[in-house]
Amino acid sequence: MRIVLVGPPGAGKGTQAAYLAKNLAIPHISTGDLFRANISQGTPLGQKAQEYMRAGQLVPDEVTIGMAKDRMQQPDAAHGFLLDGFPRNLAQAEALDGILKADDLKLDAVLDLEVPEDEVVKRIAGRRMCRKDSSHIFHAIYNPPKTEGVCDTCGGELYQREDDSEETVRKRLEVYHSETEPIIDYYKAQGLVVTISALGKVVEVTQRAMAALGRD
Ligand SMILES: [Zn+2]
Fold it and tell me: What residue numbers bound the domain in which 27 lies?
């Protein structure tokens, strides 16, 4: 299966992508991993991306598209893949169609994780990280530490990342609405969109997604 996963920040996209890719036995291709791999291997695209990032500029679509194309042409992706974070705008979606069409391939589904905006803000703005170990993560409402501001695991100080502030989350949601949501309409016109609720436990959302993809 060739699947694109979309959803606003805070929908749990990365977590769902990992589980779904495992259940469907296809590689999980995330934009974050693409960038990290290309940069650490020093590929020409990775070097280009790094130049823009160092200058504090957005990496142009053609660089991201090139990385995704290379990755989709690896042998493990021959029978399918799950894209996470790509395409993130209409230009990338059109480029993806072109890449697939050139090999006589097409997407099977676009899985849209839906979560109410206030819930997104609650999820992200409630996150608290440990200063000593970034894998110690708590949530003010859903997973509060025993003592406010103190890590249960190591006693480190808990803090809120700047990226997780309500103001930043609202801004990220705005970007999602203006840039990424148009691709949902684009794919709806192709009859590819499957929308599921991203509320509930991780395992429940995965089951819902598998059922929606006809793979339960
Ligand atoms: Zn800790």
Answer: 2-212
